Amino acid sequence: MNRENKKKSFDKGYYKKHPSNDTFICKVCGRTVVPTGAGSDHRNHCPYCLCSQHLDNEPGDRASDCGGVMEPIAVWVRKNGEWAIIHRCKVCGHLSSNRIAADDNPMKLMSLAMKPVSSPPFPLERIEEMTRLMGGDGELVW
């Protein structure tokens, strides 16, 4: 089965229990992605740019008709300490969480992790004023 032409040739839920051994071309960076090296039997995103394609409504069902690019927007840490990537579909906005793979680009992962720190939702030059407004003394201690 070819990822780019995902006509259903398997029963619903097939990929939940069976490995996906498909090689595919990333829709974003154009690199060839092979299943080996992921550290898992379920390769679901490009290890170079971390983008994916919207194929599933539920993990492994291949039931989505959207087919949009799933862009990585954040990372989070699961209870067991394992990192996962949050993807958002650029077409329909669907959100999904995918575990990181062993061969994922570490700089891209760290860039996602640092995004809230490097781009806070408020101007940094007003942090002292905002701290005072919230009841703090406004003094920054470094």
UniProtKB/TrEMBL annotation:
Which InterPro entries does the entry link to?
Answer: RNHCP
Domain RNHCP as annotated: residue spans: 22-110
Tell me which Pfam families the record gives. Answer: RNHCP (PF12647)
Instruction: Output this protein's name.
Output: RNHCP domain-containing protein
Native organism is Candidatus Pseudoramibacter fermentans
Q: What is the lineage of its organism?
A: Bacteria, Bacillati, Bacillota, Clostridia, Eubacteriales
